[in-house]
């Protein structure tokens, strides 16, 4: 199981794939024996994602593959939900029974009565679930990307017709980098390595984060913003750029609309007022604006935190960042803010094989998504509006189209419990843990245990808390047990192909099989679903002139689209006006405040009274050894990170009687959780940083314990009310008000065997 120096050319006993234990998809090589058992691994030096480097998560691959707690056979509930009584059944029986129930619900309550909740990036699972939803007729589908980028995608595409999300900075070309709301030192080692290369060649670094992260430690300027005030900071930077005449006036005059409105709004945000709201010193606001505007080319990188701020805070943050990218003149500039290129026509058939158009015109679908009445821009109507706007430049549409269609998880839960705006009767959860990673965990629990829910199916590698409540539990293959193709949700504009490395254990199946087998039982076109995932990959890869097998076994197993810059000079921007809309007409069309008006602390709609809950919590920060709720089973990783930790400033801790290294209680109106205090003198005094997504697979399964899901899970106490979510339906996962106090160790029930 140790690392070994491997080369793909060494022969058939060395197989090549990529790791999906996090979304980076670093290349890996495995040495296998004659029975297909992985013996050793190494990084793939010919894979351009990480050039042969592996993080600590990737080194657990063989441990995870052989783990005693893995699910190996389909299970059917025979007792009460959550009671833990199961009958082992065949995969065929499970598919027959689940499909029959789905058919019954579609005929009785319409296809919209079925919802899907996707999880972490199991590559066939996301796109296959979307293809299935479009084929079945339900708009109520979600993947984990719903929590990461919906607001950002919608804002960027509304402003300049495409996005910059998956684009990187370039050593030797990028002269200024702004990391805003992310920490690539922990979340993206390949990106962090490229950042270091840029700095070695002279690039300056600005980091916007309430914490002094490992990335912030490398910064030339750290803007320690108060949580949920990012929009105010963006306006302060815009103010300085306009006031000091350091914006790209020629680009703005030729290519932008709405500048006068932006200028009027930004005029209110002097550096001094910005400091008052954000806590960032006025002098640093001025310095940051000049660095970003004058050192260029500059790259203001995407970070998930801004999409998770809730209410108006998220809107003003993502819109403000888009405006900064535009007026700086960095859009689609080498080394600056590249607008991602769609797949070449001779490379990859992404959108035609997802086929969202089938969902739009589905003969059985009569209703919008369950959240359309709350956030209409994320709906079938929103999708159609964006297709119309972008179609002049991108006839097939935006490759990240799913981000305009994702339903809101809390809206799905309310459709179950309140049957508002219509009933949702079935939920399929695939390789995700909504109780832990999707926010509003208690709302999810109420839905999953509701008598209104007639079917709950979970497919996963583990008996997760949600699986423990399910009617059917299906065993998922790990990345070594399946053929694979990474297209990063269609937004990366590249693909990497992976071989199946290991022989499948038991009846574990790859994620595609779930949707394909249900699809073949329920679709009006049996040929819509190829028999194998390799057959589906062939359809994606057909324009490249090679089959999946030819790519998988060939000397090179990837293709990256060569970037093309300044595309707008020939065809304009993919917006209704053909220009950069600093005040986007798409927002106006859907009743959203289109000016970068700041709405944030102090809120007009507070999530909790400030006098009772004086602190703000920012859970969800990434740590290198874990991916959200995943990998808790690894003995190696648990030795490094055995317990949930909450960062707190020593002065704040002293004020509330909290001791370093001891247990503390974090409370909100939704309830309380317990984590160990970890003093951090660099953290803002008004902020605490709890570990997110925490559960303990060794704790007692099934009701009422559910493997400790309520003990330390930050998302058990995040709010899910629609009025607190963002304009795009993103939940307020970061910055919610809380209070803390000293606490005893949580009562931990005795562990039970699997």
From TrEMBL:
Pfam families given in the database record: Molybdop_Fe4S4, Molybdopterin, Molydop_binding
Entry annotated with the keyword Metal-binding: yes
Stretches of the chain forming a coiled coil according to its record: none
Database matches in SUPFAM superfamilies: ADC-like, Formate dehydrogenase/DMSO reductase, domains 1-3
Gene3D superfamilies, sorted: 2.40.40.20, 3.40.50.740, ADC-like domains (2.20.25.90), Dimethylsulfoxide Reductase, domain 2 (3.40.228.10)
One GO MF term attached to the UniProt entry: metal ion binding
Keyword entries, A-Z: Iron, Iron-sulfur, Metal-binding
InterPro entries referenced in this protein's UniProt entry, alphabetically: Asp_de-COase-like_dom_sf, MopB_CT_Acetylene-hydratase, MoPterin_dinucl-bd_dom, Mopterin_OxRdtase, Mopterin_OxRdtase_4Fe-4S_dom, Prok_Mopterin_Oxidored
Protein name in the entry: Molybdopterin oxidoreductase
């Amino acid at each position: 199981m140790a690392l070994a120096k491997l080369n793909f050319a060494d022969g058939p006993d060395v197989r090549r794939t990529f790791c999906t234990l996090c979304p980076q998809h670093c290349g890996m090589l495995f040495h296998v024996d004659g029975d297909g058992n992985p013996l050793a691994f190494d990084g793939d030096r010919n894979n351009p994602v990480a050039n042969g480097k592996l993080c600590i998560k990737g080194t657990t691959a063989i441990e995870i593959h052989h783990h005693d707690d893995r699910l190996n056979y389909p299970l059917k509930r025979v007792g009460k939900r959550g009671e833990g009584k199961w009958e082992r059944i065949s995969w065929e029986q499970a598919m027959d029974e689940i499909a029959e129930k789905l058919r019954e619900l579609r005929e009785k309550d319409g296809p919209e009565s079925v919802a899907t909740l996707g999880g972490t990036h199991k590559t066939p699972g996301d796109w296959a679930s979307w293809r299935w939803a479009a084929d079945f007729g339900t708009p109520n589908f979600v993947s984990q990307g719903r929590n990461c980028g919906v607001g950002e995608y919608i804002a960027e595409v509304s402003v300049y017709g495409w996005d910059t999300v998956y684009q990187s900075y370039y050593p030797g070309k990028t002269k200024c980098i702004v990391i805003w709301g992310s920490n690539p030192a922990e979340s993206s080692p390949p990106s962090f390595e490229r950042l270091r290369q840029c700095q070695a060649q002279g690039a300056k670094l600005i980091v916007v984060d309430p914490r002094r992260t490992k990335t912030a430690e490398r910064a030339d300027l750290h803007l320690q913003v108060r949580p949920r005030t990012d929009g105010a900071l963006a306006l302060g930077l815009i103010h300085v750029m306009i006031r000091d005449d350091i914006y790209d006036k020629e680009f703005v005059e030729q290519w932008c609309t709405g500048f006068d409105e932006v200028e009027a709004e930004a005029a209110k945000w002097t550096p001094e007022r910005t400091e008052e709201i954000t806590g960032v010193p006025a002098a640093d606001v001025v310095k940051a604006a000049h660095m970003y505007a004058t050192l260029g080319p500059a790259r203001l990188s995407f970070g998930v935190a801004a999409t998770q701020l809730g209410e108006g805070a998220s809107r003003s943050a993502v819109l403000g960042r888009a405006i900064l990218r535009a007026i700086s003149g960095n859009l689609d500039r080498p080394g600056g803010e590249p607008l991602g290129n769609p797949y070449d026509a001779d490379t990859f058939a992404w959108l035609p094989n997802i086929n969202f158009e089938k969902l739009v015109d589905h003969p059985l679908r009569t209703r919008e998504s369950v959240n359309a009445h709350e956030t209409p821009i994320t709906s079938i109507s929103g999708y159609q509006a964006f297709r119309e706007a972008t179609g002049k430049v991108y006839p097939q549409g935006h490759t990240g189209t799913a981000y305009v269609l994702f339903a809101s998880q809390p809206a799905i839960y309310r459709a179950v419990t309140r049957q508002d705006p219509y009933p949702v009767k079935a939920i399929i959860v695939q390789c995700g843990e909504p109780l832990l990673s999707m926010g509003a965990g208690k709302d999810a629990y109420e839905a999953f245990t509701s008598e209104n829910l007639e079917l709950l199916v979970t497919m996963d590698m583990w008996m997760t808390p949600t699986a423990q409540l399910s009617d059917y539990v299906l065993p998922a293959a790990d990345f070594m047990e399946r053929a694979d193709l990474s297209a990063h949700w269609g937004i990366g504009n590249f693909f990497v192909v992976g071989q199946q490395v290991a022989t499948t254990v038991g009846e574990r199946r790859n994620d595609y099989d779930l949707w394909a087998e249900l699809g073949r039982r329920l679709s009006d076109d049996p040929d819509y679903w190829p028999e194998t995932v390799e057959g589906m990959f062939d359809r994606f890869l057909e324009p490249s002139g090679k089959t999946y097998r030819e790519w998988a076994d060939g000397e090179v197993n990837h293709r990256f689209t060569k970037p093309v810059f300044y595309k707008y000079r020939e065809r304009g921007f993919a917006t209704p006006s053909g220009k950069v809309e600093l005040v986007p007409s798409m927002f106006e069309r859907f009743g959203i405040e289109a000016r970068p008006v700041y709405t944030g602390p102090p809120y007009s709609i507070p999530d909790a009274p400030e006098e009772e809950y004086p602190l703000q919590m920012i859970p969800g920060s990434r740590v290198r050894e874990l991916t959200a709720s995943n990998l808790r089973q690894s003995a190696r990783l648990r030795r490094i990170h055995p317990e949930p930790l909450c960062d707190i400033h020593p002065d704040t801790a002293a004020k509330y009687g909290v001791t370093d290294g001891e247990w503390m209680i974090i409370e909100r109106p939704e309830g309380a959780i317990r984590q160990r205090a970890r003093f951090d003198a660099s953290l803002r005094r008004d902020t605490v940083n709890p570990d997110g997504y925490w559960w303990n697979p060794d704790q007692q399964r099934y009701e009422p314990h559910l493997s400790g899901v309520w003990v330390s899970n930050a998302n058990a106490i995040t709010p899910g009310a629609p009025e607190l979510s963002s304009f795009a339906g993103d939940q307020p996962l970061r910055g919610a008000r809380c209070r803390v106090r000293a606490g005893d160790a949580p009562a931990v029930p005795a562990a039970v065997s699997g």
